[in-house]
Structure prediction request, 559 residues.
Amino acid sequence: MPSEDKGHSSISSADQELVLSSLERDQLAGLKKQLIPRRHLRGLEKFVLWSLRIYLLFMMVVVVYQVWIGMH
Amino acid sequence: MSVRPAYDDEESAGDSKRSAKEPLMGVGPLSRVTAQAVTQEAVVITHEDVDRAHDRVRVSAARAQRGVFSRFRLLWLLVGPGILVMLGENDGPSMLSYAATGARFGIGFFIPFVVLTFCMAVVVQEMTLRLGSATHRGHAELIFDRFGPFWGWFSMVDLGIGNFLTLITEFIAIRAGLGFFGVPPWAAVVGALAFLCLAVITHRYWTWERTLLAIAVFNLVFVPVALLAHPNWHSVGRALITWKPLPAGLSKDILIIVLADIGATVTPWMLFFQQSATVDKGLTKNDIDLGRIDTVLGAALAATAAVATILATAPLFAHHMTAENFQAAEFAQALQPLIGRFGAALFALGIVEAGMVASVTISISSAYAFGEVARRPHSLNLPMAEGRTFYSVLFLCAVTAGAIVLIPGLPLVYVVLLVNVVAVLAMPPALVFLFMLANDREVMGDLVSPTWANILTTGVVVFLTLAGILFGISVIAPNIFAFLGGK
Prediction:
């Protein structure tokens, strides 16, 4: 974000010290661009996620049907 | 660790390099993930960091002092996300659901039921508090990183659709509430958008949070309205203890009210909002205990307002008022002969406040999530120049929703109640992601969910899923309920 870095020029050294002494390392905004490693999904986890995804899609169809009935 | 100061002054740069060699104050569970990144890449310190650091200094100073006053000051500094998320969820469609519940069923089963739903909300929201404090990452960010973009986008689509529909209903509520005072719809929408701008104009999380807290507490205006309705306190006490009288029969309409009342307290945007607000506020694992108090306090306030709304509209029970009248703010008008012009005006103002606060929190929830996924700066501490994407998403969502409400003849009334139903249906998948993240030792460290929390969360997921399935059956095969003795 080069364009957005322009605004940082007014940060004083005292504020830099304050940030480094007050915030935990993970709290620094600049570090949040780093990805957290992906975890491996187990079979049961995939099954639950897919089941709930199908459940949600099906229920959304039901809701649309319900809205259609309500409007007519 | 290499820190690149974001300024050109050589002397100051030297100071920064010196300070960068000193150890940071605290280290979270994700540090071993990010530490490698720190050594490989220079870090820009931003205004967002500076503002957050100033807030943390005040928290540290309050924590270092002893005495009751200091403890209260520390609590005062740390409350915010929990109260805001709970009172924010007492939004336009939620207050409509409670009003419809009181008008349809009076004092009975639904009073303890609503209290139970807020207990469920505390169980769920506590996990987001722990996640945010432990990881300093937003909910959308964690889902994308840990489960990958495939599941991440599913989650974001659920959130995006739910948030946008809910945002539309907030503007309906604002328009309806102000309509009671004769304010034209366009002026109501413009006023709400102006309020949104004012709420974030300071570009400071702390100021935004305190301003919104002051306005959100106005949600309790439903308490004096309830008192003006002179409820039968003996019946209220009996309902709280016995959960009776039960609604007569089992029907689709009753299930919609049940789901709407659940959706009025537990919704996906709350998960994303509280975790992101926890991160933006800068809470750490040392703040979790007081963060829990913040969440419970918020739930208690919101449950009080919710029950008060049911009690306020309970006198309409005999008149069979229904939600179809909401768009014209007729709940307030119908209450006027019973509680007077002043009480009705308070009710209408309460609806406006509910819509106003929620329109801010839900817009911000969307902006946080978008920023986290798009890897753009996302904080209420950002100056406009640094957070153009964040503020653009925030305002774009609000302006579009407000404009839709102004389209003449749009059939929005029925959708108001169904928005809460949609929220309930979307909750189980969102809760499973939350459950998995809160039990992920690699990101949570020692703050993984205890067994009791996992049992309660599983119970909430099963309960919400069964409620959704029952609703589905009631729509697809309504005769089954008649067969079981319902309507």
